[in-house]
Design goal:
This protein is an alpha/beta fold. About 20% of the residues lie in helices and about 20% in strands.
Length: about 550
Amino acid sequence: MSKCDRSGEVKLGDGYTATATASNASMALDQTELVGKRVSCGGERATVWYFGPVPPTTGLWLGVEWDNPERGKHDGSHEGVQYFTCRHPTGGSFVRLAKVSFGVDYLTAVRQVYEINSQEVLSEEISISKKQLEWGSIKERGIDNLPTVLLSRCEVNGPGADGKIRTTTPNVEWLDLSGTLLSCWEDVATICLQLHRLEGLQLSYNRLSLPPDPSALCQAFSALKVLVLNSCELTWKQVLECASMWPQLEDLCLEENDITELQRPEGLLQSLKSLNLSSNPLVQDSVLSISALPRLEQLNLSKTGLSVIRFKDAAPGFQTAMFSALTTLNLDYNNISEWFVVDELAKLPSLVKFSCRSNRLVSRDGNQKTANQILIAKLGQLVVLNGSEIHAEDRRGAELDYIKMFGEEWLKAGGQNQLSSQFICQHPRYQALIKKYGAPEEGELKKPEPFALKNQLLKITFVFPNDANRQPIEKKLPASMVVQKVKGLLYRLLKVPAADLRLTYTSSKMVGTEFEIDSDLKTLQFYSIEDGDQVLVRWS
């Protein structure tokens, strides 16, 4: 939108225009009016941090920092002169004014999107934080009746004329302004203040400067319940600085930001029910800082690098006072490898839905099903694990197997007599399960796998799709061999670092299907690799 027109003018938004010709030097605009503005150029978004000459070239330049640092060429300097600074050493560029678009106001964007093909666009529905809103009973489908406005990746730069939004799109409840050219929260507030029904707002992929007094803008977001701010380069401190603007917020999504250390939200976000911090490099000791949010029911900490969590206010087998309302927790794709972390999570009083896919929790036999049974047995209140409902028979089977699995250790630790404190710490629910089902008989205790099974040799053929000249290699390997050692063997054969190797396998039982081998700590047996299977070896 809003590229240079035939007269050579570039629309700057908010009433600004600039002539993109040699007469730029005489423009009324100065650097203070352009610095901080958002621009679009070649499909990429950037922020203006400099406007002026760059000797020895002639004419005026915009110094911009790209949202995508790979698009840039330098750090804001030229021939030893620092004109502006960038977060990334190659995130900056100098571009001519005629090459960029400064966008259009909100209502212009609405008309451009919704009047091009009104029949098609006005039939859309929006999904924000898994909530959907359709036209429902609304019969007259015009812009003034729109319940949702989708302007993602449109070049919206501001609200436009005073008060016009209120009369043009008065019924908007859900608004998507992701990836626009908005540059400050004040402009967002001016738009939202005129949408008195607004409940859901998407602002992902924007770069918004913080207002000097966020609480002064709270009226604009007084009805807001859902807010999505993914990939906005926000820190947790900045989120808390803004939080007073959202007094009724229930659902906050902050995926892929710059959030590291969490601080306690004193008096803020008190109505929050759902918080998504996925894909942020969290300092794990700081997670407990948000544990006092009184209404928090859903917490997503996937892909945050977590390996440990402890609730020191409660002994093993007892409930913590932290996260008192938390019913749903997502810890997918983290570094959890110790079972005591699961015992700590068992202290959460309300936890019923838990997901921990792609962690490093491994059972003795290396079987994922066994690991899931241990999870079910340790988390007695759990109703859903990894997205699947736990039925009564599943729980009974998991708990009985758990009793048998660790029965020998229980007997050695004292059994029905004085049980050792070490066993109680490692298996806080074991005694409760004994009361529920009775003590295990010595004859029914689960024995370790037979030596012969553990050391069963599999004939495996390694093939190399990346290297057509390399002949397949056939090896006999024990089923209990972990993938990490397999990669070590391949390193010695190929001289390719183990970290660069990616393994998959195919089976004659399922021709045409290739299975991922995605964990170095699992065994060949865990992946159900059988005698005669092929392992495909690729590297970068």
